[in-house]
Amino acid sequence: MASPIPHPEREEIRVEAVLHALADPVRLRIVRELAAHEEGLSCGVLDLGITASTLTHHVRTLREAGVVRVRPRGTSRISTLRRADLDALYPGLLDGVLAARR
Amino acid sequence: MASPIPHPEREEIRVEAVLHALADPVRLRIVRELAAHEEGLSCGVLDLGITASTLTHHVRTLREAGVVRVRPRGTSRISTLRRADLDALYPGLLDGVLAARR
């Protein structure tokens, strides 16, 4: 059996890591898409114009920062936004970022 | 006469630059101090444990991102948080970041 995909617990999440994870146009695009798909999605379906390995890197950065949760489903990986954790830790931060028009 | 210190206009501020500027422990510390001092302060008075040139770099990063406004006063420079601009562009973001306990 494969090892479970590691995630920081809510109390392990650090604001600098969250901000760094969000401070990238591709990752911000992924976060916007996940915010619009509460049920989660396989980020590979997004047309981001990047290679699979670059996408893997970005999703890992988001996961390790505590911004997204990734779970296996069949041969793909489904990402969801950790909105409850982020809203509890940093009320308003995520909505403020999502409100950004640029 | 010295050139005025340049700042992005509100409409030039970009969320990635703001997030990047905030995603650093020293800069976040500066932002917290400025949030507590609405009248602004000379960042040199803060005990940040960094050299003057490193401080200059951090304040420039915050200024160029649109997070702080810097104005000369005598021989020092007074920084203030651009709260109205940030709250208008990204409602909740700054409060969420300031709410962070880690």
UniProtKB/TrEMBL annotation, chains A, B:
Residue stretches making up the HTH arsR-type domain: 7-101
Transmembrane region(s): none
Keywords: DNA-binding, Transcription, Transcription regulation
Cross-referenced Gene3D superfamilies: Winged helix-like DNA-binding domain superfamily/Winged helix DNA-binding domain
Source species, domain of life: Bacteria
CDD domains: HTH_ARSR
Pfam families registered for this protein in UniProt: HTH_20
Protein name: ArsR/SmtB family transcription factor
Phylogenetic classification of the source organism: Bacteria, Bacillati, Actinomycetota, Actinomycetes, Pseudonocardiales
